[in-house]
Write the structure tokens for this entry.
Amino acid sequence: MKSTLERGHQALKRISELWRIDAERMQWVDLKDYHNGAGFDWWPGDYPVVVRASFQNERNDGGVRISIRTDVLRDAPVASEPFEKMAALVS
């Protein structure tokens, strides 16, 4: 059985493969203070995408939490009716 750390790294690697990320536009990070986590930062365009895996203590259930963040819609008027209509059309 794979350890939590191995499963987390495998999930991160799989995400990067599925997204076909150019290695020159990403940076792997090891975050000892992020719940023994790891991840990568990716710049597909003007906004970075931050992907992280945080690992629970090995004595717990061995779960891995994957989080993905970007600022692409940070200043978008998401509460406006025009934005809601546009989002509905493209989803």
Remarks:
- The chain has one domain: 4-90.
